[in-house]
Amino acid sequence: MELKKNPKADISRNSGLFFVGGLALVMFLTWQALEYKKYDDVVNYDISQNVDDLLDEEVPMTEQIKTPPPPPPPPAPEIIEVVEDEADVPETVIKDTESSEDEVVAEVADIEVAEVVEDLDIPFSVIEDVPIFPGCEGEKSKGAKALRDCFQSEMFKHINKNFRYPEISQEMGVQGKVYVNFVIQKDGSIGSVRMRGPDKNLEAEAARIIAKLPKMTPGKQRGRAVRVPFSIPITFKLQ
Hints:
- By secondary structure, this protein is an alpha+beta fold.
- Helices cover 27% and strands 12% of the residues.
- The protein is built from five helices and five strands; from the N terminus they run H-H-H-H-E-E-H-E-E-E.
- A hairpin with a 2-residue loop joins strand 3 (220-221) and strand 4 (224-225).
- The N and C termini lie far apart (131 Å).
- The relative contact order is 0.11.
């Protein structure tokens, strides 16, 4: 005959619950042990016992510091006497001991002021008397416009006559415009030549052409020779 167990008699059925409850109890006791504090007994100290000692203590005397008396007020300013304009006030003359009585004072009319002549740059388009390119002297009677047109025409003829395309620039296929600026000096010579172009070889060729310009009759402004800036582009184009 098989034996059967009563489910109510199984003691392991609630073992998990007992374990959790015991663990909670142990943690609670541990926490109480960590939080437990012990305080010393408080002693009430009677401060009235030291009253006599405080009364018997000698208080040191402090020395009174005497402040110095304030300084006396400044003296009153002197009374300045106002002199009316009508009154004659004697003038004090201070003589120079180094000067001589025989010194000659020059009159203003005796001094000659030298006129300062400035070097002016008058543009070619506004100058009164334009520079004359050799060969354009016959256009002078026709006026300033005829002289300007002749100047530019002779300038282009000079460039076409002396033009030479640099071989190295041709081989490299370099072409473009070289802008040349120069100044016709007061003696008719050419100076202050500057170039700006796409290649150094083309700039050197433009400078060589301008260096071959002949000496010209200088430009004049109000009858006086002046410097005249002039600019012209030289075109280098491969065929």
